[in-house]
Amino acid sequence: MSSDEQELPVFTTAADMRNWVRKQKKSGRKVALVPTMGYLHEGHLSLVKAAKERADIVVASIYVNPTQFAAHEDFDVYPRNPVRRSIGSSRGFEGQTLPALDDRAKLAAAGCHAVFEPESLYVSVPGAGEGSNVVGRETQHPDSHETYVTVERLQRPLCGGSRPHFFRGVCTVVTKLFHICEPDVAVFGRKDYQQWRVISRMVRDLDFAVEVVGMPICREPDGLAMSSRNARLSPEAREKALCISRGLAWAEAAVAEGRVSEPSEVSSHIRGLIEEAGGKVDYVELLDAGNLGPISDLASQPTLLAIAAHFPAKDRGTVRLIDNTVLGEAKKE
Length: 333
Ligand SMILES: Nc1ncnc2c1ncn2[C@@H]1O[C@H](COP(=O)(O)OP(=O)(O)OP(=O)(O)O)[C@@H](O)[C@H]1O
Ligand SMILES: CC(C)(CO)[C@@H](O)C(=O)[O-]
Ligand code: BAL
Hints:
single chain; alpha/beta; Rossmann fold; Pantoate--beta-alanine Ligase, Chain: A,domain 2; 2 domains; three-stranded antiparallel beta sheet; 10 helices; globular; binds adenosine-5'-triphosphate; binds pantoate; binds beta-alanine
């Protein structure tokens, strides 16, 4: 275990996390939260960097949230820390099994100050396990979790079509994380653009004293948007999936150069690219980048071009990838 990791506090209970944050805030420190589902990549670490620029203390959460997954989705195979393994004489962890230290080591190296890594965030029947909070697998025990947060309109388009449960789960777990970690700032990525907009609307409507920051998409050198789910792609599918980022780049150039003027020209071209690459399109849509509402042309507003598509997984089933760009918006370097 590196010296950094030895100094990185890891909290597994809400009470301990909240008490630690309150001590920091009592000392006048500003606290930022970076919520994640682990299996960290440079995209996540870019959020930690942004958080450090905006607060004195950065907490990252690692929790694969069951309530944002449906029973037919990939909760069980979602990439997690490599198999937990026993480790030797690390301070305080003798003989215990731990998730691989990869995520924690990355966070420590990125200058994160604490990690919140709960086993579970939902009350469930003893022995029922986290999976019992996946939508469609809920136990009906009278003591089970039953309170949710919903952003009614912004949740409907795009991912709300094939994942109608998703944003209810996201808003509920982010609300819980806000109550536990009590951040002044929360940093999200615009790779999940609709999620960023939905959470921003939730914060506005429910008066959370939290500044929500949305950071640009980090990409692999070949353009693929970094995502934990990329690890599940077969090698061939990893190559084929480049059609998504290449389609976005084509659209940016075609719109900027006036080669296309109708939203339907853009969506049908990109849909064709994905299908030619063997992908299964969930959506290719162009919406108002501010309110996710419908548009009639590309010139009247910054336009979100959002894509979701499935590609073959190396193990079983498919991997659903999402990516996006905002057309008509100056690119920040
Ligand atoms: N490539 C990226 N660039 C910027 N932010 C990112 C990127 N990938 C993920 N994030 C952000 O990191 C936070 C945690 O996301 P998550 O843990 O689900 O990672 P992920 O890579 O999006 O995984 P998934 O495979 O589920 O998409 C979110 O705010 C998400 O938008
Ligand atoms: C925000 C989040 C951590 C909530 O589980 C998740 O949706 C994600 O990682 O984007
Ligand atoms: N960042 C993606 C979260 C999900 O698909 O559940």
